[in-house]
Design a protein that fits this description.
Layout (H helix, E strand, L loop, with lengths): L3 H26 L50 E5 L4 E4 L5 E5 L10 E4 L4 E6 L2 E6 L6 E7 L15 E7 L11
Parallel strand pairs: 2-8
Antiparallel strand pairs: 1-3, 3-6, 4-7, 5-6, 7-8
Length: 180
């Protein structure tokens, strides 16, 4: 009598051998291409459509294989319009306020800047203006205010570009020594 376990094991062995044979046979007829997906370059030209302002929402009837340069869009973000006193101003008073006008009202709590040399300041907004006032006085000599690009308007739009602004401070006039 045939042992049932040997018959099952033999059947499984034959099935495994059949699948191995089938896999080897298929590999011989359909070799495929081995790749690790690094530095893969297309064998056919890539079709690219570069949108322009005139075709963004228009359907295209054919696909172009040529890359068409387009004009870059204007920088998004809040723009600095004016600063008063102007950048590079000399003889700025030690208690002078700095007025920066932007293209949108700025968020007072999300306006990030630094002053060098380090000077404690107050910040206040009025419409599109940011007003920076020294807590006591600006330091005599060159002062630089750096406004960071993460600063945001009331609508959440960031500055288009961070910037630095400088001015020179002169000391307050002192009373003449002979006056009583």
């Amino acid at each position: 009598m045939i042992d049932r376990n040997k018959l099952i094991i033999g059947g499984i062995g034959v099935a495994i051998l059949f699948f191995i044979f089938f896999f080897v046979l298929m590999s011989a007829f359909f070799p495929g291409k081995k790749t690790d997906n690094t530095n893969v370059e297309p064998t056919q030209p890539v079709n690219v459509i570069a949108p322009t302002s005139s075709n963004i929402n228009e359907p295209t009837s054919s696909v172009s294989t040529e890359i068409v340069p387009t004009e870059l869009p204007a920088k998004d973000g809040v723009q600095l319009i004016t600063i008063n006193p102007p950048d590079g101003a000399r003889e700025v008073d030690t208690i002078e306020q700095i007025f920066m006008t932007f293209s949108s009202p700025m968020n007072e709590g999300r306006f990030y800047f630094s002053v060098n040399p380090k000077t404690p300041t107050f910040i206040h907004t009025e419409g599109n203006k940011v007003i920076i006032t020294p807590e006591n006085t600006w330091k005599v000599g060159k002062n630089i205010i750096s406004v960071f690009g993460i600063s945001e308007s009331n609508s959440g739009t960031r500055l288009s570009t961070p910037f630095e602004y400088s001015f020179e401070v002169v000391p307050l006039p002192t009373p003449e020594s002979g006056i009583e």
